[in-house]
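Posting here for the record, re: zinc ion.
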Amino acid sequence: MSGRLLVTGARVLTPGGEWPLGWIAVEGGRIAAMGQGQPPPGTEAGADVLPADGLVAMPGFIDLHVHGALGIDVLDADPEGLRRMARFFAGHGVTAWLPSTMTATGPDTDRALEAVRAVAGPVDGGATILGAYLEGPYLNPAKAGAQDPALIRPADRGEAARFLDSGVARVVVLAPEVEANRWLIAEAAARGVTVSAGHTDATYDQAVQAVEDGIRHVTHAFNAMRPLGHREPGMLGAALVLPELRCELVADNVHVHPAAMRLLFAAKGPAGVVLVSDAVRATGLPEGAYTVGDQPAFSMDGAIRLADGTLAGSVLTLDRALHNLQAATGRPLAELWPAASRNAAQAIGVDDAKGTLEPGKDADLVLLDPALKVVVTVAEGALVHGGDHLVRLSQPAIGRPSPRR
Ligand SMILES: [Zn+2]
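Prediction output follows.
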C-alpha cells in the first residue's frame, strides 16, 4: 500500500451525525480529511481507492475485554498467539483491543502481562493491542462465575503494584465491596488505569461508595453481579442510574436477554454502553470441548459453559454484538455505533486518538454491508481485512504487486 487510502461512496457515521454519502482520506496512518458527497478533484492522485458504495463507514471496533480465540488464551502468554488473535479479530471489524487475563496465580498473570507488553502497539495485518485488561484476581468469590474461586484473593499490595508496574494494564476489574480491595481503586486510578466493578456482590450503597472511591466502569453488566432488586438494586441498579459508570455488555443474546439489553441502552443512552466480546479460546472454532482457565467447558449453540452450566465467557465477536444490539433495541446505527468504539476509547482514555471518524484521529475504520457484515477493516491506515475485494491502485507502485488477485 502507498500509505494513502481514499474511501469513497460510503454512508459515514460521524460524531456530528450521519452523512448519507461521504469520503475519507487516509494518510500516514491518520484521517487526513473527510467530507460529504464526492471527494474534491485530485484527492485520488496516488491513493489506493476503496469504493464503498452501499457500505456504511464507522470507527473500527474497540474490544476492551478479550480472553482468547482460535484455540489461544491470553494466559498462554504467547506473543505470536496474541498476533494471531489480532488478525482474527480484525476480520470481525476490530481495530484495537485489550487482551484480558482472568483470575490466575501471580506468576501466570505476570507472564501474560509480559507477553502483552512484548506485542503492544500495531500488529502487522491485525488490530492494535492497546494494553491489557485484568479480570481479577481481586474479585468476590460469591460471584466467581467461571473465575476459579480458589485463586480469587484480596488485593495484595506487593502483587497488585507489580501488575500495575508492568505498564500495560489499562483496566483492572475488582470487587469494590471487598474492604481489602478499596486501596487499589485510588492507586490504579492515580496511575491512569480504569477501575471496573465486576464479579461483585456489592449492594447499592456499596456501589455508590465505589464510585466515590473512583470506579468508573462496570464489567459485563448483569453478569456476575446480584440481579436488580427493587428494594436492593445492587451494583446493577447503580450501573443503570449513575452517569459516572459505563457498562460493558456481552450482547450474544445468551449472557443477557435482548429485553435487558434494551433496558440497559434506554437507561444509559448511546454514550453509556460498551460492547465487549469476553471471547474465549473456543471463539472462531467449531463447537466442542475446550478449557476456560483450567476448567473444562463445552461450546455449543453460540455459548460456552462449564459442566454445571455456568457461562464461561463467550464465543462472540463485536460485529455480531452490534447486530444483536441493533436487533434488541431497534435503534438506528447513528445511535449505536459509539457502543462499539467511541465509548470504549473514552473508557480507557484513548479518545484523543481513537474511537471516532474525525480528521487527525487514527485511521481506524470499518466498512459494513447493510446486514452489518464486515467487508473492510483499516487499522491505523493499514488495510487489515478485505483489501483483495475492494482496493484498486489508481497508480500502481513500481515493483509492488497489486493487492488484486
Ligand atoms: Zn472476561
